[in-house]
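quick one, 274 residues, struct below
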Amino acid sequence: MGYQEIRYDVDDRVATVTLNRPEKLNAWTVLMGQEVRHAVGEASRDPGIRVIVLTGAGRGFCAGADMGLLSGIVSGQVPETRESASAPVEADGSDSDNFHGTYAYFPRVGKPVIGALNGATAGLGLVVALYCDVRFASDAAVFTTAFSRRGLIAEHGISWMLPRLIGLPNALDLLLSGRRVDAAEALRLGLVTRVFPAAEFAAGVRGYARELADMVSPRSMRVMKRQLWDSQFQTLAEATAAANADMIESFGSEDFKEGIAHFVEKRAPRFTGH
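---
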């Protein structure tokens, strides 16, 4: 598929999806959402890809919904926004009904999705980032929920996601105020996992993605990701019972055998994902 508002690149088992409207700080459009969903689905189905990176071109990750889209809503020209109508993402990760939303489908993908937040991450852009499994930021990145300053509300499940990541008091602060948060504060809050200097950002993200692709069992990542997302809706007893069943299955997997063999033989792993 030829993309208009994103780029899709594959290099050595890592797929990179780049929001590509740099002149607009990658402001989100319906077409962009459709293309991201299609690209993520493509990466999910490709057995040669082990890691997905989502990032932005230029100075921003995503500055939120395109103002033309919002202005159209104000004037009564409500656009078709059903991005989920394009390229359904098959669930080889979590199959929970909770992850069928327009932006909430990343947990359904059985491969790690890394949010590489290179710059401004605001509003809807922040929502999309929160659904990534891991978030890395450039020290030039800034974050804001923005909704309260546009007369809007906590959209697209952010009222559920944000408190789970940074706690209820911090989530209330960021949502009610709509204030800007720099990368250092985002790291302290737990909004991002790691911050890299801007000059080292691309290499830092790439190094982490390469480590996952080269050193880690794809099967283990797939099962663990499903466990962690599903456990958000389970009791401890339910999560433990499910893990016990998954453990028995893992003992018979090829990746388990390879995990033991490469450690004993002191060589690089050759995981297949089976």
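The chain has ten helices and ten strands.
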